[in-house]
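To whoever picks this up:

The nightly regression suite flagged FAD dependent oxidoreductase domain-containing protein as changed. Nothing in the input moved, so I suspect the structure step. Input below, exactly as stored in the fixture:
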Amino acid sequence: MTHPFIKRYAPNSHVSAEPKALNNGLPKKRVGIIGGGTAGATIAIRLAALGLETYVFEKKKSLIDGPPMCHLHSGGNLYREIPDDDCIDLLKQCIDIARLYPHTIDVRPTVFAVPKRDDDSPEDLFPRLDKLVKAYSELVEQDSANKVLGEPEHYYQLYSREQMLKLAKQKQVAKPTSLNEWMIPVAKHLDLDKLKFPLIVAQEYGWNIFRLSASAQLALAQYKHAHVLTSTNVKNVSPVINTNNDKRILKWRIEYQSEPNLNEQPDLQACTQIIEVDYLINACGFQTGIIDDLVGVDVKRMVEFKASYITHWQGAGGQIPEIIIYGNRGTPEGMAQLTPYPNGYFQIHGMTNDITLFNDGLADATPMSAQPKLPDKYLHYIKDGWDKTALQARTQTAIDYVAEFVPAFKTANTQNNALFGGQQIPGDDDTLRVADVSLYSHISYARAENVKASSTLIAADQIVSEFIKLGIISSDPAVNHHRSSHQWSYLKHNSCENIGEVARILAGERGFPIDMAELNNSL
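Regenerated output under the current build:
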């Protein structure tokens, strides 16, 4: 069921050598992963690299096609409300995930600005930023390969109003090579009269979802132990019970239907197939509750429908940083986020109920079901796409919102697509930004709930630790060598260029401008 272009790019590149850590007399185990988003795909890479027979079931045509993402939250500076420890966790996770998926990162700074209408001050963030610099420095001291965010002492810098006024008089360059050059278009386009100073500029980079999808699919194509079933619906999950008196769950039976390729076999009908796995991993994103209900696990969670909007603006004059205007989430003055892509494309988040958030877009689980029920219209959007009139109206609202602080952006054009979807939130705290995995050892079941995509490798690590405890994987330290050194085999066989070529195909299939699959600056 591998996508045809994956076969073309990795036709005979399976890694045939099984890790020595698994050759200690342990029986080969099967793992089923339901959901091929960032969590499911990353966990699958981790497990397949260990030689486990890994099956990924994804209902869409390709992996990692979910809620809006655009930003490597390497420090969590977008979120003034979360604890400093969570920000440090995000920093560590982002460095790790960037080393797994290096060809997905767009290297450019992010500008954080506090508007005058906001109650807080830029200085409030200085203690956190200094903690992040210290944490980043320590990580680089531990392993020089962790220096993926530039020099630690340059992790953040401050710009005064006087500096910005001087930069506004300088000539803009098309391709910035210094931080001052990056800040020239910011100085020219931001309405400085509406902001508090200093501005904060941090090395929080872009993260490209199309390149992430391409990287994951090419990585899994490397492993003969990885079986990726896209365009596949899981119809049921049921336990295989020990017939002895202990009634212990020995395996899980997965019933699924894969859509036939009608171009190759036009008369073929989908039929139900069954596979038994030794361990079941639920990575269904906002639909994790459906599998929880089938398994019989009761859990609290929320689901939120969110969207970001694609626009085109030729007035930037060249490459510019990402621009964040702080605000209180869910209010009419919520945070504005302008994310640049090559050739004048921009993605907009506006954390108001008229733009990224929705008045009725947050749903809770109920005593009857672990799966929160979003309104039908949002489920329809997720499955079939947006109503074009509503999409255009929201995109125009997003443009107008950004134009309050970047006046020239009012000339930006709406596009015909958005990045949107449901986001799971474990528990009942809608400010949660760091989460990973829940383990149910007694029934050989795990659930990955990653609020941020950067947490997925940590979730995979926790599952590997669980497998060692259960005897599925050997405790030989060599089992984790490729992980600790980030020696991912697919990186030896795939370049930034061919990952980009696959990403362009994906962007086109999903109805997005091909330019959005490109990077302005790579790691």
